[in-house]
Amino acid sequence: MANENRNSAHWGALAQFATPADLYHACEKVRDAGFSKWDAHTPFPVHGLDKAMGMQQSKLPWIVLGAGLTGAALAFWMQTWMSAIAYPLIISGKPYWSWQAFIPITFELGILFAAFGAVFGMMALNRLPMLWHPLFRSRRFERVTDDAFFISIESTDPKFDARATLELLTEFGATHVELVE
Amino acid sequence: MSAQVMDNAAYDPVDGRSPLVLGAKDFHEITEIVAAPMEWKLPKAWFIALGFSLSLLGLLAVSVGYLVWEGTGIWGLNSPVNWGWAIVNFVFWVGIGHAGTLISAILFLFRQKWRTSINRFAEAMTIFAVACALIFPTIHVGRVWVIWWALPFPNQMDMWVNFRSPLLWDVFAVSVYGTVSALFWYTGLIPDLATMRDRAKNRIAQVMYGIFAIGWRGSNRHWQHYEKAYLILAGISTPLVLSVHTIVSFDFAVSQLPGWHTTIFPPYFVAGAIFSGFAMVLTLMIPARKLFGLERLVTVRHFENMAKIILLTGMLVGYAYAMEFFIAWYSGVIYEQYAFVNRAVGPYAWAYWIMIACNVISPQLFWFKKLRTNLWVLWIVSIFVNIGMWFERFVITVTSLHRDFMPSSWGYYSPTFWDVATFIGSFGLFFTLFTLFVRFLPIVAIAEVKTVMPEADPHYHPPEDGTAAEGGKH
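^ inputs. structure came back:
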């Protein structure tokens, strides 16, 4: 009987496609065939591929919103505490708690934290940095950052079967298929 | 490819727009065009450029070293002109940076596809310009070793910074701007660093590009978050860049000095910043495009678009100059009126008219298509704009200060050797960073340029030989 980790000898299957259009249609078919642990690899973001792969919306905007609001709140609190509580000093006859004057820095730090949230949130959601990946074993895969388009299906996918999956990918229009160790 | 194709300023007969990428037959060729100069054997010209830049950088080091040793007395500052070239150079450099963010963020939000060929270059310019800008406020305090007093840092004196001062807002605005610009730039670089990693032949290049590419493998599940991050960064950089020069203008506008105390300053400064930044992009891009053979990616259409933005922002700046005079007259305040009449006919009239000639008159050449598509004209006008915008900051800073309220405290300011040396030296830092950048990083966003090619669309069908393109299949 098949176990959870079928074909553990292989990491998975890799199939190359000639054009973004071929890749797009193949992704629709892989999605409809019911695979779950698979991915498409492209040199640049291909428009509409998220839909062809049946992916959910990115949760990144919520992370950014949370980070930005945290930054703004911290900045406002910091200015309030330093100017009005820790070190109250009369300057040009302005009140200690001159909240209007605190707005520029509140805004700037809100932006700073939002930017950190966007970049590091993106990396965290993508599990990056990950300097090595089994796909890098494939010589062909080096061209993914140049002009080649791939679909990879992991062997941990319940529907994965080394021979059948490769045949299926060929049927979906792959110009080249291989197993990745 | 014929010579005719190289000139895409003519309109495309099909969709009314000229193509953004000329004569590249596939995605691989784009990679080749951009990556090849980084893999050439280092040309002699590069070493000459680096040597020249490093010697200017040395001049900066000596000037700053002597300043730290001796104090700000080596500059031409006096009373009443307590702010001289340091602040002028600071605003000049920050302003230059702004075009980079405009191209990378605002044009991205407006879906201006032509930005893809020039955004990497312009963003690099932003970061290097901000680095140059940060030198001046840091050193102009004189006692550089206590510059950390400008930061809210717990200290043994139990003192905190003054959050009610625009100068402190400026510390935050410019450092946040520098940080966010660097993050934005790096995010854009990740896929291209992966391209360089996968092409690299020698071990050092593989490891260095490999580390900074953080293991990018072009995964679509990654692209999804990546594109979202990029869009958000563009969205937050847009108000950020507007806020930065607004806050820089507050350094002046919040004071009560005639000539500074005007509400038009924030929009006027932002327009001027974009104006000067685009000029600097032209100044750098025209020779770089030639040297690195990027004629097919950075086309005449790109330059023409930039010339149009320079024309627009130049006229906004001209409008602001005129409006300042109008408000000075309309306000009925004699000090305000004197400050502006004095600018045009007083001891610094020469600086004022250089500013008007360079900023208001010279861009008017761009009304003519023949002139704004001529690279020599573009390059020369861009130099004029750079000069004019430096003089704008000089005029604002010095003419407003040199006539105090009391005629007994009037004075005249002239720079010393060290003022000039520090400013020229800051170009050394700028050019050194640029020389290294053009050698070690892809100066055009490889992945992004591929997306503007028609073949990148998954619904694109290549026309069969002899037949028309098969449209509307989906």
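Residues 1-6, 466-474 of chain B have pLDDT under 50 and may be disordered. Chain B touches chain A through 69 residues (CB under 8 Å).
thumbs up if we can close this ticket
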